[in-house]
Amino acid sequence: MPMASEGRLPLPARVVATLGVAAVAALLCVWLGTPIPWMIGPLLATALVSILGAPTVSWIPFRNAGQWIIGTALGLYFTPEVLALLGRLWWAIVLAVVWALALGMFFSRWLFAVNRAHVPGLDQGTTFFAGSIGGASEMTLLAERHGARTDLVASAHSLRVLIVTVLIPFAIQWSGMHGLDATPPAARVVDGMGLAGLLLASAVGAMVMVWARRTNPWFLGAFVAAMLLTVSGQDWSAIPAVLSNAAQLVIGVSLGVRFTPAFLRGAPRWLLSVTWGTLGMVTLCVAFAWLMSLATGLHLATLILGTSPGGIAEMSITAKVLQLGVPVVVAFQVCRLVAVLILVEPMYHRMVRTDSGTPAR
Fold first, then answer.
1. For every residue of the chain, which 3-state class applies, written as one string?
2. pLDDT means per 10 residues in the chain (361 residues)?
3. Cβ 38 vs Cβ 249: under 8 Å
4. Residues 184-241: pLDDT tens digits?
5. What distance in Å separates the CA atoms of residue 272 and residue 207, rounded to the nearest whole number?
6. Per-residue CA distances from 26 to 82, 160, 321 (Å)
7. CB-CB neighbours of 204 under 10 Å
8. pLDDT at position 181, please?
């Protein structure tokens, strides 16, 4: 369906058509036996038809609901025993945060070096926010605040997350490393009344995060609320598989719709460099995860997911579906995200604006 028809096709029809394509792709991936089929299938199918010009759309309420469900499901893994384990791993989490900050800085400088002679208007601020391993929307907003090229920043984060989300689950499944470090959730039985109470509590947590203007509020707010209930021994209900699958589907759609024809036409050399850089970062992260596994005794695949340059929701879903130490992966990813969001702007003022000779504000 050409883009010209987008203006004539009402939003509800676009939403239904996009979800229909995503559902067919998910079922096909289930039949093929791919990893995390309910997310990877919709992601790849939606990205493909979007690039071909179809008027796909990710409806924000559906995306928020997907993050809410996934955040709630992941919070159920944080039993007191798990928190005690994470408490003993504090040093490893801190080391992983430092690694992510250093890797993002290296990536940003590499992007500038290989693109400065070929991409018009490129500056070190743009590559700094494009290379930082954090939330795409937050890095794009920071880039806009500091006069960087937001189109390049947004495209870099979108492509990085796509590559990592597809590459790592397939590599882990093909390697046979999945299902070796299973940490079961506290609640394993679905109870109607308990589920209603759990979803209500996690929705309240999400709304508090929205009110406080926190990043990823629907994911983190629901996660924190469910985690607090689990830690306190309130095992109300498990999350039904159908809800988890639907949540993965809409998250996959939200990633796939970013890849429009304009996305590919924007700066091909830039996108190629982001691709190669992302593959390099993944390779380095695997080596780092191997060293961390030797030091901590945790499974290599768990630490690959925990330290990979992917998105928090995507890597956490991968850990959940492939049974690879969900709490460890979530803890590493959440701490990294929080640290990056707190430190990336001060680092920009100290390392980029100072280097360029512009006084920090």
1. CCHHHHHCCCHHHHHHHHHHHHHHHHHHHHHHCCCCHHHHHHHHHHHHHHHCCCCCCCCHHHHHHHHHHHHHHHHCCCCHHHHHHHHHCHHHHHHHHHHHHHHHHHHHHHHHHHHCCCCCCCCHHHHHHHHCCCCHHHHHHHHHHCCCCHHHHHHHHHHHHHHHHHHHHHHHHHHCCCCCECCCCCCCCCCHHHHHHHHHHHHHHHHHHHHCCCCCHHHHHHHHHHHHHHHCCCCCCCCCHHHHHHHHHHHHHHHHCCCCHHHHHHCHHHHHHHHHHHHHHHHHHHHHHHHHHHHHCCCHHHHHHHHCCCCHHHHHHHHHHHCECHHHHHHHHHHHHHHHHHHHHHHHHHHHHCCCCCCCC
2. 53 90 93 86 90 87 90 84 82 92 91 85 86 77 78 84 87 74 64 89 92 82 89 85 90 85 77 92 94 90 89 80 82 83 80 54 37
3. yes
4. 665 667 778 888 999 999 999 999 988 987 777 888 889 889 989 988 888 888 888 8
5. 39
6. 32, 22, 14
7. 13
8. 58
- Give per-residue pLDDT as tens, 68-83: 998 898 888 887 877 8
Six token digits for residue 304: 């690959």
Q: How far apart are CA 321 and CA 168, in angstroms?
A: 13
CB count in 10 Å sphere of residue 297:
7
Q: Find tokens 């969001």 and name the residue.
A: 341
What is the pTM for the complete model shown?
0.80
Retrieve residue 96's tokens.
């992983």
Measured CA distances, 323 to 28, 118, 126, 180, 183 (Å): 22, 44, 37, 7, 7
Q: What is the pLDDT of residue 289?
A: 93
